[in-house]
Amino acid sequence: MKWFLAALIALFIAGFVYWQRQGVKVSYINGLAAYNALPGREYIFQRDCYLFKLDDRPSSWPYVGDHAVVASLPNNVDPKHIDAAHPAGRIIDLVRTGDRFKLVSVRRDESRHGTSISFELLFLNETERKYPRIDAYFIMDHSPELRGEAPRLLPAYAVERVKY
């Protein structure tokens, strides 16, 4: 009985360690010097995109992007693809050119696969949206991160809204 109990405890500990290694630690880094000016900025989408979930990259919010940044998405952004499964996940909605949003938070995800920075976006017409908050990971230029600078949104996808 002692050996059985010891084996059960060891199995539990191994399972817990495995579960911890598979998890993603999420932290919000809005207040760090490189990122503190980003939240609150407003942007306008420059092209139609999909909102989608990926099976191999979980996120609290749907991702935004198109075939140019996620190869498994259909070539043309079309409403007929909504609720359709694609090779890596599921398409759940569309974003249209001219839709406006603001950057509400900068998030750092850490897992055993690495660390990544992402922006959480909120549509300005959030009450009219089924998915008002989205994840901008795939429409970001991550190259400034290599120099310790804040990433930015790709200008082909979104430009900052100029307020007069």
Keywords summarizing the entry:
four-stranded antiparallel β-sheet; single chain; six-stranded antiparallel β-sheet; mainly beta; globular; 164 residues; 35% strand
Explained architecture:
With 164 residues, the chain is mainly beta. The chain has one domain. The chain is 13% helix and 35% strand. It has one helix at residues 2-22; strands at residues 25-28, 42-45, 49-54, 63-65, 85-86, 89-95, 100-111, 114-123, 133-135, 140-141, 152-153, 158-160. The strands form three sheets. Strands 1, 2, 7, 8, 9 and 12 form a six-stranded antiparallel beta sheet that branches. It has a four-stranded antiparallel beta sheet with strand order 4-3-6-5, with no helix packed on it. The longest helix has 21 residues, at 2-22. The radius of gyration is 19 Å and the shape is globular. The model has no long low-confidence stretch (mean pLDDT 84).
